[in-house]
Amino acid sequence: MHSPFDLSKPIAIGSDHAGFDYKEQLISFLDGKGLPYKDFGTYSKDSVDYPDYAHPVATAVENGEAAFGILLCGTANGVAITANKHQHIRAALCWGEEIAKLTREHNDANIICIPARFVREGVAERMVQIFMTTGFEGGRHLNRVNKIACA
Ligand code: RB5
Fold first, then answer.
1. Structural domains of the chain ordered from first start
2. Which of the residues 5, 31, 35, 41 has the least number of beta carbons within 10 Å of its own beta carbon?
């Protein structure tokens, strides 16, 4: 499988309780493909606070320890808002295949944020497959991406 990411590194994955079931499904999907991953939790459906999982995933991606990141919560807004506080993170809220493709092509997103309560069964896996195999287009989009950081 061709990927713009270095898939010899683990994929960082994390969720809160609302994203737990889809996180487990995505881990099975990654296992099935023989892809390494690091599961940052949560590890049950007990109620937790999404920043406690989004920050470690974002840090792993930011530090280059992870190839890219996958975050899930109920709406994906909580994890996306949190992850995007990190300077080198471009965390994209994705709810369909086309958005997952476009955020790689146009935004060079390095974390995909999935709203577990708003995507149908199977869509999460298809979005991750598209996200990890789609390259950044560069060109005019590079100029824009270069203007995102505040510092
Ligand atoms: C949890 O109930 C929910 O608030 C959380 O998963 C997420 O949707 C927050 O943005």
1. 11-146 (3.40.1400.10)
2. 31
- Pairing state between β 91-93 and 111-115: parallel
pLDDT of residue 1: 84
Write down the pTM of the prediction: 0.98
Smallest CA separation from ligand 1 atom 5, residue = 74
Residue ranges lining ligand 1, Cβ < 6 Å: 16, 18, 50, 73-75, 77-78
Kindly give the distance from the C-alpha atom of residue 143 to the centroid of ligand 1, in angstroms, as a whole number.
33
| Separation between Cα atoms, residue 47 and residue 24, nearest integer Å | 16
* Cα-to-centroid distance, 34 and ligand 1 (Å): 30
In the structure, what pLDDT confidence band is assigned to residue 65 with cuts at 50, 70 and 90?
A: very high
Residue 151 scores a pLDDT above 80: no
